[in-house]
Model the fold of this input.
Amino acid sequence: MKQIFIAARGGPEKLQLRESADPNPAAGQVRIRVRASGINFADIMARQGLYPDAPKIPCVVGYEVSGTVDAVGSGIKESWIGKEVFALTRFGGYSDLVTAPERQVFAKPESISHEQAVAIPVNYLTAWQLLVVMGSLKRGETVLIHNAGGGVGLAAIDIARQIGAMIYGTASGGKHAFLKERGVHEAIDYRIKDWAVELNRLTNGKGVALITDPLGGNHWRKSFKALRSTGRLGMFGVSVATNSKLAGPLRLLPVALGTPLFHPLALMNANKSVFGVNLGHLWHEPEMIAGWMEILLKGIADGWVRPHVDKSFPLERAGEAQSYMEERKNIGKVVLTM
Ligand SMILES: NC(=O)c1ccc[n+]([C@@H]2O[C@H](COP(=O)([O-])OP(=O)(O)OC[C@H]3O[C@@H](n4cnc5c(N)ncnc54)[C@H](OP(=O)(O)O)[C@@H]3O)[C@@H](O)[C@H]2O)c1
Done:
């Protein structure tokens, strides 16, 4: 099989195409001949040595694939063979052949392409956990979605729109027209304006009920302040670490130093709550994930889940694909195809 390895810590040039032996599905697994593989920001952080969950380098990352089942392990029904599926993979997704436990594999709806299918698992499950499961967003409430133009961002917009919330989003200015088409009521260019000042103006000083924040460090402090009473802050990433000029994992230092401490008494007195989301730490809850996925697949059928692929790159151009995201060019999902 063909795989993209992170050969060493560093820039996109550290991604290398290599041939490896074809994997055989173990008991309880299916093997998928991959047609599309999703890129996530975590993959870039893994390459930069900033993602503690990643396997030891050299490694193959990739959390999601879509394709056709071509073999099954013991204990798995042969009827899977030939089925078009998409799956969550605990790494190894940047490959043209992948094995995954049956419980992480879902039938691909016929109405969407393999590229669109890989825009679902990580993006929509994360957004569902943030907005619905832990963020309890309700009709008529206000939500601020940071990085609204990214993969998780667009998924969060779909869910907030379906709930009937008032949506604020931060993103680079060039993405605003598209975001408004997708359902964002007010878009803020956080790269040229102080988004907190702008949000304060737009909400007449009230703040919002829910904020989803993947930037981390000091940014979480700012988001917490921007919540109204009974507001919730969902923290789920540390993208700001990639901005630092320090070397390797030292880049996490400014994030760690800037991270606020939330004291229980201060939370009580502020009538606010904070919570964390890490989909990559939920492998032991497959039934929960399957339940969320069932709702999202119904959302595909009903038309409110709209997985949006910005750009596809052939597997061997994975470095270019990651650069495209690092340069903040993407609106929605970036995908590798085979
Ligand atoms: N905890 C979890 O379970 C989980 C799951 C999925 C993703 N995440 C996190 O959610 C965030 C978004 O992930 P994603 O995969 O959907 O990626 P994404 O948002 O599509 O990532 C690229 C976008 O992020 C924005 N961005 C913000 N800071 C950036 C920086 N320092 N460098 C480059 N781009 C930056 C840029 O858009 P604008 O400049 O237009 O905003 C860029 O287009 C990441 O922090 C990721 O780690 C967490």
User: Anything to note?
Assistant: The longest strand covers residues 29-38. The longest helix spans residues 286-302. The pocket of NAP is lined by residues 40-42, 122-123, 126, 147, 149-153, 171-172, 175, 214, 236-237, 239-240, 242-243, 277-280, 325-326, 328, 330 (CB under 6 Å).
